[in-house]
Design brief:
- It is a single chain.
- This protein is an alpha/beta fold.
- The chain is 38% helix and 19% strand.
- The protein is built from 10 helices and 10 strands.
- The chain has helices at residues 2-11, 16-41, 48-53, 64-77, 109-118, 140-149, 208-211, 225-232, 255-261, 265-276; strands at residues 54-60, 82-87, 99-102, 124-129, 132-133, 155-162, 190-191, 194-195, 204-207, 238-248.
- Strands 3-2-1-4-9-6-10-5 form an 8-stranded mixed sheet. It has a two-stranded antiparallel ribbon with strand order 7-8.
- Helix 4 (64-77) links the parallel strand 1 (54-60) and strand 2 (82-87).
- Helix 1 (2-11) crosses helix 2 (16-41).
- The radius of gyration is 19 Å and the shape is globular.
């Protein structure tokens, strides 16, 4: 309890003046250490599956430095990976090495992801948040090989490693909204060593045409995660691959961004109408 309270004070409360430099300094030091370790270990061997079959889609909003950090990390690991960015910032970012879809201001994550997905021309798509960072454990080529081997899999989730703690959330029993749909295969069933889950992090590889069967509800601007996987249940087969990882460095001290991020009343109203009012 004390740890959570102190963390809140450092991120959002009276100790924010101290928390911001501590947090950002620690993240910078960790990333510098990771890049130093990768100088010898990163392999730039050909990645034909990635280069010819995969497109990364990123939704971003008012975080150009964070987006640039992601793009730089992608280019370090996968120089030829296609990247499509949906940006609903006041001033959208246009960086070398990515395609930008500029959207009306604050259109929301769902509309952005939907527009980016519509622009994908490869058989596979990789969903990313803009505060992710690729590193040596972001093994896309190996993951795609397993997707090719196991044609029944529609979505392969990966592990999101949160900085500065280097811990990842467990999605085995992650919650969905009420639904009558049943999983295509019982959760926990192993496919090529990977357990079936109903919900995985917003870091996954999917078959493009299968993903389009579900898509995103443009009315939901922030709280899209559980809504997407609730609607995907019974339609798409999802597994969790804990050998596929990405780093996650959030921006809790970006006040302008966080103010918008926490503006979720409209989403709650939409979700209540979709899933709960008819059950009262």
């Amino acid at each position: 309890m004390i740890g959570k309270r102190l963390s809140h004070l450092l991120k959002y409360g009276r100790l924010r003046w101290l928390g911001k430099p501590l947090y950002e300094g620690l993240i910078a030091a960790e990333l510098a250490w990771i890049r130093w370790r990768e100088r010898e270990s990163l392999s730039f061997a050909p990645t034909p599956l990635v280069d010819g079959n995969l497109t990364a889609i990123v939704k971003t909003f008012e975080r150009p430095k964070t987006l640039r950090r992601l793009i730089d990390s992608i280019r370090r690991c996968y120089p030829n990976l296609r990247v499509i960015v949906a940006d609903d910032s006041k001033t959208p970012s246009f960086f070398e090495g990515m395609q930008t879809i500029a959207l009306p201001y604050d259109s929301g994550v769902s509309l952005g992801r939907q527009r980016a997905l519509e622009a994908v021309e490869t058989p596979y798509v990789l969903l990313l948040d803009d505060d992710f960072i690729f590193y040596r454990e972001t093994k896309l080529e190996e993951a795609l090989q397993r997707m090719e081997k196991n044609r029944q899999i529609d979505i392969m989730g990966g592990e999101v490693v949160n900085l500065p703690s280097f811990k990842a959330l467990e999605y085995k029993n992650a919650g969905l909204h009420p639904t009558e749909s049943r999983s295509l295969i019982a959760p926990g069933t192993l496919i090529d060593g990977m357990p079936v889950y109903d919900k995985v992090p917003n870091f996954y590889i999917a078959r493009t045409e299968r993903l389009r069967l579900v898509g995103w509800d443009p009315r939901i601007k922030r709280l899209d995660h559980a809504d997407f996987f609730t609607r995907a249940k019974g339609v798409l087969l999802t597994v969790m691959n804990k050998e596929l990882k990405v780093l996650h460095a959030q921006t809790p001290h970006n006040r302008a961004y966080m103010q918008k991020r926490h503006d979720i009343q409209q989403d709650r109203t939409v979700l209540r109408m979709k899933y709960y009012l008819g059950r009262l």
